[in-house]
Amino acid sequence: MSDEAVYPVTDHFRNKALIDKETYESMYQRSIQDPESFWAEQAKRLDWMKPFSRVKDVSFASDDVHIRWFDDGTLNAAANCIDRHLEERSGQPAIIWEPDEESEDNRVITYAELHEEVSRLANGLKSLGVKKGDIVTLYMPMVPEAAYAMLACARIGAIHSVVFGGFSPEALAGRIDDGGSKVVITADEARRGGKRVPLKANVDEAVSLCKESSVDNVVVLKATGGNVDFNGNRDIWYRDLVGKQSDQCEPEEMGAEDTLFVLYTSGSTGKPKGVVHTTGGYLLHTSITHEYVFDYRPGEVYWCSADVGWITGHSYVVYGPLANGGTTMMFEGVPTYPDVGRLGRIIDKYKIATFYTAPTAIRSLMAEGDAPVANADLSSLKLLGTVGEPINPEAWRWFHQKFGKGQCPIVDTWWQTETGGILISPLPGAIDLKPGSATKPFFGVQPALMDPEGNEMEGATSGGLVLKDSWPGQMRTILGNHQRFVETYFSTYEGCYFTGDGAKRDEDGYYWITGRVDDVLNVSGHRMGTAEVESALVSHDAVAEAAVVGCPHEIKGQGIYVYVTLTHGQSPSDELAKELKQHVRKEIGPIATPDVIQWADGLPKTRSGKIMRRILRKIAADEFDSLGDTSTLADPNVVDDLIEGHRVAA
Ligand code: PRX
Q1: What's the ipTM?
Q2: Average pLDDT over residues 533-554
Q3: Hey, whose CA ends up nearest to atom 7 of ligand 1?
Q4: 400-417: burial string, b at 16+ Cβ within 10 Å, e else
Q5: What contacts 579, CB < 8 A, 6 or more positions away?
Q6: With CB atoms 3.0 to 4.6 Å apart as the test, which of 63, 241, 526, 559 could cross-link to 595 if both were Cys?
Q7: In this predicted structure, what is the pLDDT of residue 608?
């Protein structure tokens, strides 16, 4: 054992867990040695309309990347998440919804009601002309109708493209355009922490900005009753659409490799890419990981606090839990509204068994001392989980102690939008915990660490994190750009999927994710491409050049640090800094708001004109002593000016 603190599997999990140590070891070995038979057997957890005869058809070779699982089988994701549970669980809550305002009524939706709602909306979408293979854009608040809309698309074989409600009209327009959506489903407004976001007004603006798509219909849910402009030729109220529909809708027979959804995520270059997930493999992966990583038992109330606009919301608010006949909690609000005790009250109110959240939320509560848990009982909790960014051991321990009372294991789950579901994580009955480590690979997952020359390294070491073989939930391509898919993920290390993350492996074979090694930031667990923020900045008249890097941030994990060179005749001012921040918010959304703007007369460039970001990162992090070799810079004096400028800005 290494010398880090170890938290052994608890007695509770040792005796009762779905997967214990021995089972994990033997199942893992089988999953690697004979993936075909392993996954064929696991795939029985889904209901297939037509069984598959081929399990896996995969190549990671850069001249022929293709990934197919169960590809001659057919099934329907919505039928797997709803219909097949009706016999046993029609009266059981499928979704429990807690509103932003504590004083308002909550909603409990049974499987029978979910079936009815989804079928009506599915018929409504059909009545608008939506067909199998069409992309429908969803821009929704955290309300049950967001889940209905995803499942209604799945039911009729339409592809959903959910855009997080915090993105700006510009960002929304880009995503509508890219997928060519004819129908957008939205709400009048979203509410979060007492504030309102004008979703419908944003859609109106986005639609007018679209260059490629012509949106025929906007379906509008009345969520808050806020005022909206209504275009009678195009807009239709959600309730009017579903009200007249039948509550029966035959689920469409879909090929396992038919696209279930597209979800946009940021990379190190270019515009956000549309990550394509397909039906069979994705559903199998989210279902099996939801059951085993969270040791989920039917009847338990399970709460993943992610927004459905992110992959975590797709996989672990909607598809995983519902595929397993579970009860999934949806919370419209934020952890600190109306006060920091809110999460504890929700856990007690619904007797939540598993609470899965982001390190940034934990750190923001930790800053409040004992207040978040002071009046909470929390004895219903059996398991905690984290996702989205590395968790610092201090926050891990606080969460373990204050929410878990020292009794609940924490599953630190590492995965990505691209991976569809969890890949590296403890199984609570099988794997001892080390705070800050995502521990061991899930079944079928083969991580490896690479040196800069592309050689796999053995033993305790650190390097670029790759996956050597496919798993069912893996993304299949980038929408409309398979070449970019190959270049982004399969060209750095031949024959491997490159994650973009760096990791360390210790003597016990535990993985510790150290963060992105590319130009992608992780701000409060949200991915942000530096190139995207830079291009937003340079679209402002005052900006000649901009370079964006991450900087350490106590709550967000990483903050957004911007170096700006102004155009001739412009001079730095607080007003201009405010204006630039506002400009980025408008172009991308509030999550991209820069934390620090530093005015820079020049940026550190090599003689060939390439910006040396390494230096900018070090300066932003106050690490002036380890700038490394600066002799190749075209003008080494720039560095001193930048250090001086940093002292002023920070
Ligand atoms: O850097 C890793 C970090 O989040 C990235 C993926 O971001 P996204 O696609 O938005 O998906 C987030 C939710 C799955 C990864 O490349 N990351 C995610 N989970 C962890 C993590 N870093 C460390 N530990 C984790 N548990």
Answers
A1: 0.99
A2: 96
A3: 416
A4: bebbbeeebbbbbbbbbb
A5: 540, 542
A6: 559
A7: 86
